[in-house]
Amino acid sequence: QWNQTNAFSRRIRAVFGRYSMALILPFTDTTCDRVLPDARQVLDAHGVLALPTETYYGLAVRPTDETALRRLIELKGRPSDKPILVLIGSLDQLPQLVQAIPPAAALLMEQFWPGPLTIVFPAAPDLPALLTAGTGTIGVRQAPLLQLQHLLRHTGPLTGTSANRSSEPPLDNAVAVQRALGAGVDLILDGGHTPGGLPSTMVDARDRPHLLRAGALSTDLIRAALALQGYELSS
Length: 235
Known about the structure:
By secondary structure, this protein is α/β, with parallel strands linked by helices.
């Protein structure tokens, strides 16, 4: 029944193209294995997924897929000079994204990953400029949501920018994403309502740790963890 429904939905989208709405599939601890083939099919076709994170829904494409990155930027109306963060499911996925892991970054990873902390690293030199916006840096977060970790371990790293058009508020449920973005998204993984609240905290952990964005993870906790190893968090 699952595969028949998905095949029918894909045929409808093929006929109606951009006028159809995104397919929504349940994405829970018990269904995450069943959506893997559909997610891979979308990603292989340079597609865009919407999926739940620990705060809001995000838009996911392969970070090395320039065609998909262009679609993502156009869909959001996002400035091309703004880097796009990436989600990983496990630490062994990090080396393909970064050129080095500075000591302060390693400390923050050990203390706060998985969790709502995006760490900025020196980017691997072969990453697309569309992803890094030519900054030479990449923001990465290890997702704490268990079904998202499971998906990422099978798909590889994916972008995690919020599932909304630029300047509009982030969205916390699948139906709201479908209404806002329509057929610009190929598949929405419905994990129910997300907690919302503040976005992930963001720290540039290259030379001197620098707070780029206050967020869901307490800045005081980060500052205290860094201070124990002799680092000062500037802002």
